[in-house]
Every structure is written in C-alpha cells, then in structure tokens.
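Anyone up for a design puzzle?
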C-alpha cells in the first residue's frame, strides 16, 4: 500500500512540475506576443481611420465620456470628419466597425469593418467595398435594409444568405448619429 501511495505522490509531483512549466511557457509567449498584437491593432485602426475620413491629412484622438473619437483634419487644420469605432453582436460573434462621419452635415462618410467572426463567403461579405458603398453619405437616421438596389440614401442592400450580419452592421451604424451628435452637435 505504501508503494502505491508513493507512486501516486510521484505522479502528482510530476504533473505539478509539468503544469508549472507549461504555465510559465504560456505566460512568456503571451508577454512576447502582446506588443506585436497591440502594434497590429494600432496599424489596422489607423488604416481604418484613413479609409473612413476622405481628404484626411492627420487626425487626433479625443475622449468624450469614455468614448474615443478620431477627429480628422485637412492640411489647413479644418475638421473633415469624426471617426468612431463601435461594436455589436453579429451572427457568429462581435463585429467592430470604424465609422467616419460628418457631424455638421449629419451623415456617414464611410464604414470599415475592423473585426468580425462572420461566416466566410456569406456574412464576411460585410467587408466588401460593394456593401460598404451603400453606407456612403447615408444620413444619421434609422437605416433600412432592402432586397433591391437602394434608391434612398438611408437604404442598404441586403446580402443574400447573410441577413443577420447585414442587420448587425445596420444596427451598429444606425447608432452612430446619436453618439456623434451628442458630442459634436450639428446635423440637419
């Protein structure tokens, strides 16, 4: 019986040592990769800001009530627009979108999907230029999904087979008007 207890004790000690080394290894890998991940996210965010704010020369990060805005300026220091990153639930997970706005005109300039887990070939089509085009110059209002070519500025063409993904993007983008107007005023 003592031999069996000895064997179990050795097994427990061995597994504890292996577990400790595994945990240290994973912690080391995490510490090594986190700066690279943050750098990649910063580059993606900058690319998105440049994409959603046309005629941008530079931008400044501004915080209002714990919400981060990116104010874009032209070479003459005129405000060309405000970008904000918003998140919402999609079909397969969270969708994060950078939305460029013109607060004075009360309209969306462009959108750029930063992150999503939508189904490749279906919901992932929310990243395509053709879909994003429908949001250009849309007014701050409740957007509407249509099953045809959009005729009104507030209409967004559906993507066949990706109803939930399109609905999620529409809901996220529809919220931007209230958020931007609250902090920047404007709109028609």
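Challenge accepted. My sequence:
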């Amino acid at each position: 019986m003592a031999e069996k207890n000895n064997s179990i004790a050795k097994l427990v000690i061995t597994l504890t040592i292996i577990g400790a080394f595994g945990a240290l290894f994973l912690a080391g890998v995490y510490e090594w990769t986190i700066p690279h991940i943050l750098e990649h996210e910063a580059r993606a965010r900058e690319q998105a800001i440049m994409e959603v704010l046309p005629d941008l020369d530079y931008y400044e990060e501004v915080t209002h009530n714990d919400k981060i805005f990116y104010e874009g300026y032209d070479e003459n220091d005129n405000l060309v627009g405000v970008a904000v990153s918003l998140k919402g639930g999609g079909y397969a997970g969270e969708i994060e979108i950078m939305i460029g706005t013109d607060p004075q005109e009360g309209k969306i300039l462009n959108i750029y999907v930063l992150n999503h887990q939508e189904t490749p070939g279906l919901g992932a089509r929310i990243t395509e230029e053709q879909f994003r085009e429908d949001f250009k110059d849309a007014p701050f209002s409740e957007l509407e999904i249509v099953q045809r070519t959009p005729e009104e500025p507030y209409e967004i063409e559906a993507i066949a087979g990706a109803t939930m993904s399109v609905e999620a993007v529409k809901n996220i983008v529809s919220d931007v008007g209230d958020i931007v107007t609250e902090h920047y005023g404007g709109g028609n």
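A detail worth pointing out: Residues 103 and 186 are 5 Å apart (CA to CA).
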